[in-house]
Amino acid sequence: MKTFLTLFLIAALNIFSQNEDATELYSKAVELSKKLLIIDTHIDIPYRLKSNFEDISKITETGHFDYPRAIEGGLDAAFMAIYIPSSYEEKGGSIELADTLINLVENLTKLYPDKFEMAYSPQDIVKQFGNNKISLPMGMENGTPLQGDFKNLKHFYNRGIRYITLSHGEANHICDSSYDPNKKWNGLSPFGKSLIAEMNKLGMMIDISHVSDSTFYQVIELTKTPVIASHSSCRFYTPGFERNMNDDMIKKLAENGGVIQITFGSYFVSGNYQSKMNELDNYYKEKNVKRYSDEGKKYYDEFMQKNKIDYGTSEDLANHIDHVVKLVGIDHVGLGSDFDGIGKLPAGIKDVSSYPQIIYELLKKGYSEKDIEKICSGNILRVWKEVEDYAKDKN
Ligand SMILES: [Zn+2]
């Protein structure tokens, strides 16, 4: 009986000290999230606010991004996604939509001047760090508004756009898309090929998230500067999913000096969740049932319960970062959440207050402060500066 009691006490003490270690490590993560500059390269707040404007200077009931939660999470700079749906390629109006979304971002800094500030260069970001405002650089998600004319590229650069995601869910006049089975250009279009040199000359970052594999390889051949994937994860964990990058692509990206900004959604992070969702999709197709019809919703609830679906964890997310680091070293990975543009999130990640949780997972894996700093901002700042420097030399 006595031995049993001793063993029980030892086990209890062990659990206690493990919990204490975890609490200590989490406090360290919170401390680092305040101390280090954190840049997220893809947040979809402009499109969210366009359809439903909310005062994001206060905590909002819906969505992932607002000022108080960003401050809580230690976020310092958030690339605003100027998102243009693929349908605009055919129906027109893409330039107007892009300008409207850019105006909306500028208005945020006018409405709440003590909380948000525009940022157009890596120097702006560094200068603004620590001033209690969230810096708002901008990237355009989908090159449709270029409309095959370099004048438009210049226009959007002048308006403050600093990266362009070449395509979105469907092929456009620039290139093919990972989501589109119709690979009409087999990579880049003739305009797309000439666009790469123009973006290099202008100092516009090239974003290869969303593009097809052939497009990626052709961009890497043509570009004179490092490229970014503003919000992509590792295909290693989601086999067959072209929207995430495979190991060979990550190696080529690293040789090019570029950076993959890991995206947070469960569908991108957890292979298990993704395959269950595909199963569900196939059912809808087979039965010809719409997901949001009454029958579709009923089946969805049954399916989720029956399969005990989990959404992955913050540890899974950190595994993507770690996978890139093991493959190509610490200099080519960062954070591109896609907050306000994604569905389900892994356990432990809920919104822009969650960066400490990612730092915590990295600390658990033994990452140093210096390494974490590179992931949080150092790598993307280096790439952005190289892109700027090349353009300065050319002009
Ligand atoms: Zn996207």
Q: What order do the SSEs take from the amino end to the carboxyl end, as H and E?
A: HEHHEHHEHEEHEHEHEHEHHHHEHH
CATH architecture term of the largest domain: Alpha-Beta Barrel
Strands of the widest sheet, in order across it, are 1-2-5-6-7
Largest sheet: 5 strands, parallel
Q: What is the rounded Rg?
A: 22 Å
- CATH C-level class of the largest domain is Alpha Beta
Number of domains: 2
Considering DSSP H and I runs of 4 or more, what fraction of the residues is helical?
40-55%
Mean pLDDT: 95
**So how many helices?**
16
CATH superfamily of the largest domain: Metal-dependent hydrolases
User: Termini separation (Å)?
Assistant: 83 Å
CATH topology of the largest domain: TIM Barrel
Helix/sheet category: alpha/beta
Characterise the protein shown here.
The chain is an alpha/beta fold and 395 residues long. It folds into 2 domains: 35-270 and 311-394, TIM Barrel; 272-309, no CATH class. Helix content is 51%, strand content 10%. It has helices at 2-35, 45-51, 67-73, 88-91, 94-111, 122-128, 150-158, 190-202, 213-222, 247-255, 266-269, 271-287, 294-306, 314-328, 355-364, 369-394; strands at residues 39-43, 77-83, 116-118, 134-136, 138-141, 161-165, 205-207, 228-229, 259-262, 333-335. The strands form 3 sheets. A 5-stranded parallel β-sheet has the order 1-2-5-6-7, sandwiched between helices. Strands 8-9-10 form a 3-stranded parallel β-sheet. A two-stranded parallel ribbon has the order 3-4. Helix 1 packs across helix 15 (355-364) and helix 14 crosses helix 15 (355-364). The structure holds zinc ion. The site of zinc ion has 5 residues, from loops.
